[in-house]
Amino acid sequence: MPKHLISIHDFSRDEILETLSLAREFEKNPRQPILSDKIVASIFFEPSTRTRLSFETAANRLGARVIGFSDIGNTSVTKGETLKDTIKMVSNYSDLIVIRHPLDGSARYASEISSVPVINAGDGANQHPTQTMLDLYSILKTQGKLENLKINMVGDLKYGRTVHSLLQAMSHFNPEFLFTSPDELKMPVEYKEYLTNLNIPFSETKNLSKGLDDSDIIYMTRVQRERFTDPIEYERVKNFYSLNLSMLSGCKPNMKILHPLPRVNEISQDVDASDHAYYFEQAENGVYTRMAIISKLLGK
Amino acid sequence: MEKQLKVSAIKDGTVLDHIPSCQLFKVIDILGLNKSSNQITFGTNLDSKLLGKKGIIKISDKYFESDDINRIALIAPQAKINIIHDFEVVEKRVLTIPKTIRGIVKCMNPMCITNHQVVETLFTTIVESPDFKLLCHYCEKITDKENLKIISNNR
Ligand SMILES: [Zn+2]
């Protein structure tokens, strides 16, 4: 049975740490064609240019060749081919599959059919574990550690899958959480129960200006218009959860702001030049962590 | 009641008693009895002090695996299972929801792969009855008691 990465909880604490230190090696020396005899299939059933380019860059840096498709436009999927048949075919051609698919659970299902390792590059609203791994790498790189950090998650905590996965992954490292969100987008009960069961402290606030000063990481997410039934409510909330430079004057020097991107107006442009801004470097870290995951799953 | 039991008593097999009448046909479905070649008698809308109206199923020469029969705990947790040998009740089983449930339950998440392609559902029971919660192996969302839908075995 090949090893897959479908959910962040498929990797133990040790496997997470191993992957992060491997990513560090790749960052020091990004050109390592150790997979020049391998073929990576990158199959995107919905477009995601950012994630796809990051994966394909990672595979190319490792010397692997990349096959696949970036949307289903010209594929047999539009003729009604099942996911099962597509995966059977692709796993015959390739040594590893990177899959993005709009349905929740599709990546887990693909991993059960595939004869080669599968990496989930986003299955609907469910998981996006390589995003979480690059978030962890960014936290480790900027803080020098993962243990005992105070993480402030801001914005859409209800539907934002990146915050849910990050919460699960960080739970290995004795964190403290602050959840900053409007009532409509609060952290779901099941995740709060999860933390309570692990004795991990958390608190909640609606007020973004509270809790900025003692945070080590501020993890911003996009508040999307589609989430609101009342457009006036959206307009009110949207401006309320926007971070600007003047709010950061009392922050800890080590504090970094992360954001899975693309950003709209939840971080004002005047923050970009601040030492606290890390979201662009964070995206770049994605290539190294994906190199680490690909090579780890292929046993190199 | 005593009389009725005697009329249709079975020599060997399994008796499922105290099934709420409204769930009787679902129980038959879950256990796949419509495909069974065993002798089966069932009654419904019988008077019951406990349930008002109850159903009963008697299956001759059939004994169920725990995990199979326990699946009916999802819809009829108060059902009583009696194992019959030579007209005697030799064992009474208490129903508990199995740790994992394959098939039978539909995932309540409309965006789950199991609701779009031919994928058998699979759940882990994370909270036991009465107010059970089932975690979908695929989409990782929870299906709870209020949103339980049984997939028919009749396909
Ligand atoms: Zn599901």
What do these coordinates show?
The complex is a heterodimer of chains A (300) and B (155). Chain A has 300 residues and is an alpha/beta fold. Chain A folds into 2 domains: 8-127 and 286-297, Rossmann fold (3-Layer(aba) Sandwich); 129-283, 3-Layer(aba) Sandwich (Rossmann fold). Chain A is built from 9 helices and 9 strands. In chain A, the strands form 2 sheets. Chain A has a 5-stranded parallel sheet with strand order 7-6-5-8-9, with helices on one face. In chain A, β6 (176-180), α7 (189-197) and β7 (202-205) form a beta-alpha-beta unit. In chain A, α1 crosses α9 and α5 (129-143) crosses α6. Chain A is globular, with a radius of gyration of 19 Å. The mean pLDDT of chain B is 89. In chain B, the strands form 2 sheets. Chain B has a 5-stranded antiparallel sheet with strand order 2-3-1-4-5, with helices on one face. In chain B, strands 6-7-8-9 form a 4-stranded antiparallel sheet, with no helix packed on it. Chain B is elongated and about 50 Å long. Chain B is 12% helix and 35% strand. Chain B has 155 residues and is mostly beta strands. The interface between A and B is medium-sized, with 17 and 16 residues. The structure holds zinc ion (ZN). Residues 107, 109, 112, 114, 136, 138-139, 141 of chain B line the site of zinc ion (ZN).
H-E order of chain B = HEHEEHEEEEEE
* Rg of chain B (C-alpha, Å): 16 Å
**How big a fraction of the residues of chain B is strand?**
25-35%
Q: Which structural class best describes the helix and strand composition of chain B?
A: mainly beta
Mean pLDDT of chain A: 94
Strand arrangement across the biggest beta sheet of chain B: 2-3-1-4-5
Question: What is the third-level CATH name, the topology of the largest domain in chain A?
Answer: Rossmann fold
Please give the share of residues in helix of chain B.
10-25%
Shape of chain B: elongated
- The end-to-end distance of chain A, rounded to whole angstroms, is 17 Å
Please identify, by name, the CATH architecture of the largest domain in chain A: 3-Layer(aba) Sandwich
